Amino acid sequence: MPEPNSPLRIAIIGAGPAGLSAAISLQKALPFTEITIYEQATVLREIGTGLNIQPNTWRMLDALNVSKNINPHTIFRTSDGHAVQHRNGRTGELLCSLGQDGTPPRHLHARALRSVLQTALLANVEVPIVLDSRLLRVTEGQHGDAPLNPVTGSPSLALHFSNGHTTTVDLLIGADGVRSVTCLHGKTAYRGLIPAEKLLGIEGFPDAVTFWHGPSEWVYTCNLRHGLYELTCMAGVSKPESEEWGEKVVRREEFMRPWKDFGPLVQEVLSHSTEIQRFPLFAGARLEKIVSRGSIALIGDASHPLSGAFGAGAAFAFEDSFVLSRALSWAYTRDLQLSEGLDLYDRVRSPHYKALYGILDRFRESDARMETLGLGFDEAVRHSVREKWGEEAGFGWVYGYDVQEVWERVVGEEDERLKQTAEAHLP
Ligand SMILES: Cc1cc2nc3c(=O)[nH]c(=O)nc-3n(C[C@H](O)[C@H](O)[C@H](O)COP(=O)(O)OP(=O)(O)OC[C@H]3O[C@@H](n4cnc5c(N)ncnc54)[C@H](O)[C@@H]3O)c2cc1C
Q1: 337: in domain
Q2: Is the CB of residue 51 below 6 angstroms from any atom belonging to ligand 1?
Q3: MF terms per GO, please (predicted)?
Q4: Is residue 311 within 6 Å of ligand 1 at its C-beta?
């Protein structure tokens, strides 16, 4: 591949976990780049809720050299080592407690404020972040023409922003979140923070990572340190009062309605909530390919509409960034066009997302089966926890998935393939 005469221009759209991790990975992996992150927000701040840091998230934070930026006193880990517990939301009965046997201590599940993760990532970002820049449109070529870039093997792209700015880039990384191409999912998450002392003062309330289940809705409580407790509730609200993310819920009845059949303990927890934000969940299309035109890659939520399922979206975003940067570097160091690196990225990540969609499809089938059984509250909760949340649900591998191992295997296979192709062309 020819050395570029000028740096390779890369635009990353979105400064969420995906965009920030992509910048960190790419700035290290490719020596000749000019990377810029464009973010639509006017101020860089995370929504004030919590986020799981799963074992696969920790592995990626190590790979990004970001773990060192997280002060252990700013994250919550359970005292008895459980990762998560599931309780009946009506009776409080503990139905299952998932442990973490075999997980190295530094990779044990943790819960943190989203801003803790954002600050840790930002500390390693060395490229400019241009705020107040909402990408509106992408066209090929600088002036309507579309010459091929010898490094990527594809035409350059013109980006048009809402503030009137236009720029031309060689590679575009779409890290603009789930609403990249989307529709409503039919469920709404309500999220808020409660002073920890209020909840820990309730008799019988566990200082744990707890899902309180109803037949299809749930309430989640978890300590976030900083004197705060997280409350997240998931309910089937197909037409929320607004589709805006993070809007304050003004009518308390909207928020309280879905949990009326839950028991007194959960009701008391909910009664302490003051400021609740609404997050209607979005479900984009399940894309067959997450790269296009030889110069565009989607990463993070933009590449997969999982709507927060598995509580590991940040890990998926980091895994995408890891593979994307390695795949581009692989192509560059083998004298291939970068479009071949993008294809390899797609060949590693698309099958992973297909496997995750398969799990969600099984869950949907389980919900449909439950509908036909006509179960009461407690039986339905047992059914749901057994089939979708406990050990038997069979998705523990998601957190054990080691993308670094997968990458080593794939790159070994690709290099072997290149060697055989070269040998076949020898005179
Ligand atoms: C209820 C719920 C609970 C969750 N819990 C967890 C959890 O415990 N652990 C976990 O790992 N994940 C969790 N997730 C998922 C996690 O929040 C996402 O997977 C993660 O934020 C994805 O990061 P991202 O960077 O891809 O997208 P986002 O975080 O959505 O960031 C996208 C960024 O792009 C910007 N943007 C969008 N459009 C444009 C545009 N046109 N131009 C410029 N900028 C643009 C946005 O402003 C935003 O800053 C949860 C999600 C939900 C809904």
Answers
A1: yes
A2: yes
A3: FAD binding; monooxygenase activity
A4: yes
